[in-house]
From TrEMBL:
Highest rank taxon of the organism: Bacteria
Protein name in the entry: Short-subunit dehydrogenase
Listed GO MF terms: oxidoreductase activity
Presence of keyword Nucleus: no
Key word Oxidoreductase present: yes
Name of a matching Pfam family: adh_short
GO CC term (a single one): membrane
Family to which this protein belongs: Belongs to the short-chain dehydrogenases/reductases (SDR) family.
Coiled-coil region: none
Length: 262
């Protein structure tokens, strides 16, 4: 797919996968709308991408946990850009803690950012996306949404919600030129773990299998504006989820030591 003249929203655009996506999309000529909380980082990234590539790039500092203001945000985006061809819902966070130790405030914040913001962004954008000849919604989920593990009850439930929502949305839009793709990932080398794994022990134990965010971004961009339903990285984890659903009790017994690494 030629991405020139396509305008794509990227949330969580100032670090990790969001930053990598922004850089690679700009290289391929896509116009960008970057959303994150950090105004200074957004401004720096926007200036750099526009000076390096012949693209249009707009930035909107916004805290997506404020879901009530998302309609106004998207209204401002469309006034500036005139058209949106796709959105990559990348913003999210996690915290590794037992369910009994996870506060109501953290649970609400996680659901607001990881789930409700995605649903609201897509809802508000859909009337516009339906008018495009080809449009794309990408929702970043996780293998945690397919196989829940200890100390990830809230995070896993948010990602499970994203997967279920994405599957239903895909079916609702099957007669329209709006593609819905879910991305399920294992551990990725990003700042996500700075907050999620404050002890640093889990990062150390899974360092050897962590995904490169540039590789993840490349795979996502490769399948934009196609009928690709899901991207699952790494592939061997996808095999694990299939085995889990065939024999969950046995799988949990065999993988108990691995599950308890958090």
């Amino acid at each position: 797919m030629d991405l020139e003249n396509k305008t794509i929203i990227v949330t969580g655009a100032t670090s990790g996968i969001g930053l990598s996506l922004s850089e690679q999309l700009a290289e391929q000529g896509a116009n960008l709308v970057l959303i994150s909380r950090n105004k200074e980082k957004l401004a720096d990234i926007t200036d750099r991408l526009m000076s390096k590539h012949r693209i249009n790039c707009w930035y909107f500092p916004y805290d997506l946990t404020n879901t009530e203001g998302i309609p106004t945000l998207i209204e401002q985006v469309l006034i500036k850009t005139k058209q949106i061809d796709g959105i990559i819902n990348n913003a999210g966070f996690g915290l590794f803690a037992y369910a009994a130790d996870t506060s109501a405030e953290i649970t609400e914040k996680m659901f607001r950012l990881n789930v409700l913001a995605i649903i609201e962004l897509n809802r508000v954008l859909l009337p516009h996306l339906r008018t495009r000849t080809s449009a794309q919604i990408v929702n970043i989920a996780s293998f945690a949404g397919k196989i829940a593990t200890p100390k990830a009850s809230t995070y896993a439930s948010t990602k499970s919600a994203v997967i279920g929502y994405s599957n239903a949305l895909r079916l609702e839009l099957k007669k329209l030129p709006v593609q819905v793709m879910t991305v399920n990932l294992g551990p990725v080398k990003t700042a996500f773990f700075t907050e999620a794994d404050q002890s640093g022990s889990y990062q150390d134990q899974v360092a050897a299998i962590m995904l490169d965010p540039d590789r993840v971004s490349q795979k996502i961009i490769q399948h934009l504006f196609t009928k690709k339903r899901e991207i699952n990285l790494p592939g061997w984890m996808s095999i694990g989820t299939s085995l889990y659903h065939l024999a969950p009790s046995l799988f949990e017994t065999i993988m108990a030591r691995q599950f308890d690494k958090k």
